[in-house]
Amino acid sequence: MDPFLLRKLNTERTARRAVIHLTDLGDGRDRVIREGDPVAGPLGDALANAFRSGKSGLVEAEERSFFLNVHLPPARIFVIGAVHISQALAKMAVVAGFDITIIDPRTAFATEERFAGIDLVADWPEDVLEKRPLDAYTALVAVTHDPKIDDLPLSRALATGCFYVGALGSRKTHARRVERLAALGHGEAEIARISAPIGLDIGAASPAEIAVAILADIIAHLRRRPLRGAAS
Fold this sequence. Notes:
By secondary structure, the chain is of the alpha/beta class.
């Protein structure tokens, strides 16, 4: 690869931005394409599919053959609240290939015994997110039921454009949450991005079933997300 393209690729990956190294197999010419770069026609469609799936491979477009080497940032899940649902979700997320972090300032809940082998931070979310900023490849899951803990990370997730934002609670609880987020300056369309009640509607009852519904919802949002620069 050309040294300039290699530097560009490494810069984008370090910044947790999605890129594809595109090679024309006919003439060997290559380029690095960022998510959101305008590419029209069938090749543009193939690139969009690759950005969503994360799969590298050969594609045929415009009577030419191209190899797409896809580089997506590792998708992360930040869970606000070290509750029973979080215990189940943490295990499932690891199996599904997600990096997951549990954040909860309540040290009675955030214990190594309850989250063995999981990235666990017993601190206030606003302090943690200063050091680990959210981005478009992060899912934010708020499950504490405590506005003092949940509201600020939810607000930051909306402002940052996390690919998934979900919050546990009844419709009445969420209605009050909507009022608080509106008071923080978030518009109706922005707040509507929150998955609440959280997760896919599968009739989940137990913490493990709710965790399944949440993880399935996260995966659906990741794979079907509108790409940067594309219409929603």
